[in-house]
Structure formats: structure tokens, C-alpha cells
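About this split. The held-out portion is used to measure sequence recovery: a designer receives only the C-alpha cells and must propose an amino acid at every position. Recovery is the fraction of positions where the proposal matches the reference. Here is one held-out target exactly as it appears in the evaluation file.
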């Protein structure tokens, strides 16, 4: 029987990164994966395919609408959807191969099959009707999450789709009805709108992107509406009738009231994700779950069963690949006797639309609710030289700093490349930096990042270009 120091169940960004770090620390490691390819949701049906399609569809839209004004004259672009899907698949394959390479390089055994925890130190791996039991000193559960479903609306991944189906549609739908104005709805809604679909988003709450700073979300909604998105906020879809010609979605005000019917060709259900623990045998093994079905862990990622840890989407916290990765590193270090740690106050979030939305730390709403006195510095991209010459001036930077200490508590950006720009704020916040520190840091000219420096100057009411 094979014996290991660590067996990781699941090879998403949490699992494979944990395995690599554990191997670096001298452990003998195996990963268990039930999917045909490594990389989890993120590489196969999540971050990577969505970003490939966001990039390709943005190029398509730019070629159609932005090239001419820069004096680049091309004939109207034609969409070759199979080729675009092939571009997406090449991106997935390249990344999956990268993870396979990392497993080999770090001498990590890949056990293909479904992992089930039999108890402390024992994992059963089953595939094709056969099973083996491996012994291990430690187990990390990194089994990720699955789509949340809506009662009475059956996902067939052809016409009524989750994100997985929406990443592989065979033709551009005339009309898409998106249920949920969260990250998936706005990213994948953007992809299909750019390729020609009419997109309507139905959201239960009275705002889009719950959790993001409200002022940013408001401006984002206005920009998306200008791009052609239609929103029905404060509404819920109570059922979808499927007929041969169209899908008929019944929509009601969230608070109750008269229903209306909206026709669509594709309905995308994206109302969140739920932890995935099927087949792991957690109940029998004695691994406790919390009230929301997530594996319960202590501050050191330990579950209720000795020698069993859990990380990533299957535990509490934001369902983000980089959060899963950092937890993977931290738990490997803890198992190795080191002081692994994740700072949950400084986890950036990015929506990869055009413009992008990014955020780190507290929102204005959170500061208000916590009763923390704060100052605000804002700077619009309309006053940023680089954005002006590129004619990409939508959006602004917003910095929230402690009113007494000037320590930066939150940074929120809407604008082109906001997802790349947020990291200087994250580093600053890791070091407990102030708005004054940012304001006094020399920023290269002309860059969009100068808007961050200007917003920091604006905290002290001394922005130069405004
Ligand atoms: P997962 O990536 O879900 O991996 C879990 C793995 O465990 C899977 O491969 C599964 O097959 C395997 N598994 C499950 N049970 C077993 C078992 N019993 N035995 C063996 N194997 C098992 N996050 C970002 O940060 N940025 C993004 O841009 C982004 N885009 C996204 C776009 C979409 C459309 C979606 C759906 C998600 C996106 N996410 C994004 C979220 C991101 O994908 C997840 O946060 C991340 O994948 C979580 O990593 P994980 O390792 O916890 O789990
Ligand atoms: P989400 O939690 O971001 O958004 C779901 C939205 O659906 C919310 O606005 C919610 O209020 C709404 N909603 C819930 N029930 C509803 C109902 N019955 N009717 C109408 N609206 C309803 O979830 P989403 O978009 O499905 O994404 C899942 C997860 O994947 C996210 O938590 C995110 O962390 C991750 N993800 C991250 C990305 C990124 O980092 N760029 C990209 C895509 C996904």
C-alpha cells in the first residue's frame, strides 16, 4: 500500500498549489482528481475559459468599434465562433499541461479517481469500478464548489445553461436572459453581448454586484447599460417554460406582485456557487460541515477529524482562485510545522469586464456599518493623461483611509486594466501603509496607475490634475 505524508483531494488552484508547496517542503505528496483533466473549475470551466472568451470578444468589439477612430481601417470583423472556441480550448489545454508538468517536476503522484476519506490517514481512490486505499499522515480536502441551482429551473447546458454551458454555446443566441447580476452574469453576459446577443439581467437585489462598493457598482451599471445591457433589479425568475421556439421566463418583483413573461433563446443561471463535498464520505468519517454545507475548519484549516484539513471554495470565504491558492500554501506550511497564514483583509477581487472592476479591503458601506471614521479620495480617469490619449476614460479610483491614522482601509477601481492596478494597493495594505505613503510614491508617467497616486493625494485634498 502506498503511503504519503500528504494526500490532497482535488487539483483546482487550491489543491495543486498546496501539493507543490508541500513537495517543496520535503513531503511525499499525492493528489487525487476525479475529473479527466487537472486544474479544477478554474482551469477547465471557470477563470481560464472565461478570460479567453472575454479577451477574444473584446478584440472583436474593438475591431468593430474602436479601430476606425484611431485611423486603423479594417473591414467589418466576421465572427468565426468555432475558431474562437478553439482559441479558448488551446488556452485551457496549455494551462492544464502546465499543472501536469508541475506535478511531474515536484514528484507528486497523480491518482485518477474519486477520493473518499475512510478516516484519519486513509483515502480510498475509486475509478472505473476499481478502488485502492492509500495511507497518508495528512489529508487536505480541496474539492471546490458546484453551481447553485434554482428550484424548478432545470439546467440542460444547451438552452438553460450554467456558466459551463455559457462557455461553450454553439451559436450566438439572439436573446440571453441572465439570472443573477454577480460576477459570472456580468462577465459572460459581456462576452455574448459583444458577439451580438441582446442581454437582460434579472437580479434579486436592488443593485448589481453585491459586496462591491456601492458607488462603483452604480457607475458600472450605467456603463453596462450604455453598452447595451438591460437590467431588471429587485426581481426574481420563478420559472422558465421551454417550448420549441423560445424560453418563456416568468419574472416577479422580489417583494411579490404581478408577474411578467420575457422571451429568451438562452437562460444563464448564475446565482452563486455551493461547496462540493459529494462522495467524500465526510459524514461517515466524522468531518463536520457548517450550516451552509461548507467544511468547517479552525483558523489553521484543521477540520473536526485529526489530520484532515480543508481549503478553497469548499470552506468559508470568497470563492476565488487566488484565495484557494494562498490557503493551499498556508496549510502546507502549517502541516510542515511552519507559520502559514492568509490575510483575509487583503484579498483582491476583480471583475474582468470592460471596464474592469477591482477592489481590495473594506467598502464604504462596510466602514459605515462598522462605525469607522474614514476619509475618501477619488480620481476620475477623465483627468488621467494616458486614459485621455487612449480615449478610455470610463471610471475612477476611490481610496478609503482611516480618518485618524490615514491607514488605507480599502481601494476600489473601475476602469481599463483595473485588475492589474489593484495590486499596488494590496501590497501597501499588507504593509499597513497610509494614503500619504501612496501619494509620496513616484508613479511612472504616463500610466493609468497615476490615478491611484492622485486619488491618494485627493485623500489629503491636494490632487494635482483635478
Ligand atoms: P476547484 O477549482 O473547484 O477544484 C476542485 C477539484 O476537486 C475539481 O477538479 C474536482 O473535480 C475535484 N474533486 C471534487 N471532489 C473530488 C473527489 N471526491 N475526488 C477527487 N476529486 C474531486 N476565480 C478567480 O479568482 N478569478 C476568476 O477570474 C474566476 N473566474 C471564474 C469563472 C467562472 C465561470 C467560474 C465558475 C468560477 C470562476 N472563479 C474565478 C472561481 C474559481 O474557479 C474558484 O474559486 C476556484 O476554482 C476554487 O478552487 P478550488 O481549488 O477550491 O476548487
Ligand atoms: P455571485 O455570488 O457573484 O452573484 C450571484 C448573484 O445572483 C447575486 O447578485 C445574487 O443577489 C443574485 N441572485 C441570487 N439568487 C437569485 C435569484 N433567485 N434571482 C435573481 N438573482 C439572484 O455568483 P456567480 O456570479 O454565480 O459566481 C459564483 C462565484 O464564482 C462568485 O462567488 C465568484 O467568487 C466566482 N467567480 C469569480 C470571478 C472573478 O473573480 N472574476 C468570475 C466568475 C466567478
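Reference sequence for scoring:
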Amino acid at each position: 500500500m502506498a503511503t504519503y505524508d500528504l494526500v490532497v483531494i482535488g487539483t483546482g488552484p487550491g489543491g495543486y498549489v498546496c501539493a507543490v508547496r508541500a513537495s517543496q517542503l520535503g513531503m511525499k505528496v499525492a493528489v487525487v482528481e476525479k475529473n479527466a483533466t487537472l486544474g479544477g473549475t478554474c482551469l477547465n470551466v471557470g477563470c481560464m475559459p472565461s478570460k479567453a472568451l472575454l479577451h477574444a470578444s473584446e478584440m472583436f468589439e474593438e475591431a468593430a468599434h474602436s479601430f476606425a477612430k484611431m485611423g486603423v481601417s479594417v473591414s467589418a470583423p466576421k465572427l468565426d465562433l468555432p475558431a474562437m472556441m478553439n482559441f479558448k480550448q488551446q488556452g485551457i489545454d496549455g494551462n492544464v499541461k502546465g499543472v501536469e508538468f508541475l506535478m511531474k517536476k515536484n514528484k507528486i503522484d497523480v491518482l485518477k479517481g474519486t477520493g473518499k476519506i475512510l478516516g484519519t490517514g486513509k483515502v480510498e481512490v475509486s475509478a472505473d469500478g476499481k478502488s485502492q486505499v492509500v495511507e497518508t499522515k495528512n489529508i487536505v480536502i480541496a474539492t471546490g464548489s458546484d453551481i447553485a441551482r434554482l428550484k424548478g429551473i432545470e439546467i440542460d447546458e444547451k438552452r438553460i445553461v450554467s456558466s459551463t454551458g455559457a462557455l461553450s454555446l454553439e451559436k450566438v443566441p439572439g436573446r440571453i436572459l441572465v439570472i443573477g447580476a454577480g460576477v459570472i452574469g456580468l462577465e459572460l453576459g459581456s462576452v455574448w453581448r459583444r458577439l451580438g446577443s441582446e442581454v437582460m439581467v434579472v437580479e434579486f437585489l436592488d443593485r448589481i454586484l453585491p459586496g462591491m462598493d456601492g458607488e462603483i457598482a452604480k457607475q458600472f451599471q450605467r456603463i453596462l447599460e450604455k453598452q447595451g445591457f438591460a437590467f431588471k433589479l429587485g426581481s426574481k425568475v420563478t420559472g422558465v417554460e421551454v417550448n420549441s421556439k423560445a424560453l418563456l421566463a416568468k419574472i416577479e418583483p422580489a417583494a411579490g406582485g404581478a408577474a411578467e413573461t420575457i422571451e429568451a433563446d438562452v437562460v444563464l443561471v448564475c446565482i452563486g456557487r455551493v461547496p462540493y463535498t459529494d462522495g467524500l464520505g465526510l459524514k461517515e468519517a466524522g468531518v463536520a460541515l457548517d450550516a451552509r454545507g461548507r467544511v468547517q475548519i479552525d483558523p489553521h484549516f484543521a477540520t473536526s477529524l485529526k489530520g484532515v484539513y480543508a481549503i478553497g471554495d469548499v470552506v468559508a470565504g470568497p470563492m476565488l482562485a487566488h484565495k484557494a491558492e494562498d490557503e493551499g500554501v498556508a496549510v502546507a506550511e502549517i502541516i510542515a510545522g511552519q507559520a502559514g497564514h492568509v490575510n483575509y483583509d487583503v484579498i483582491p477581487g476583480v471583475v474582468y469586464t470592460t471596464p474592469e472592476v477591482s477592489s481590495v479591503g473594506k467598502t464604504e458601506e462596510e466602514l459605515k456599518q462598522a462605525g469607522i471614521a474614514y476619509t475618501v479620495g477619488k480620481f476620475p480617469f477623465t483627468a488621467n493623461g494616458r486614459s485621455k490619449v487612449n480615449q478610455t476614460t470610463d471610471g475612477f479610483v476611490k481610496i478609503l483611509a482611516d480618518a485618524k491614522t490615514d491607514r488605507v482601509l480599502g481601494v476600489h477601481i473601475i476602469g481599463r486594466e483595473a485588475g492589474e492596478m489593484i495590486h499596488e494597493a494590496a501590497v501597501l495594505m499588507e504593509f499597513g501603509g497610509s494614503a500619504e505613503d501612496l501619494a509620496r510614491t513616484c508613479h511612472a508617467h504616463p500610466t493609468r496607475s497615476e490615478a491611484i497616486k492622485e486619488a491618494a493625494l485627493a485623500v489629503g485634498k491636494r490632487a494635482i490634475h483635478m
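Annotator remark: The first strand starts at residue 3 and ends at 9.
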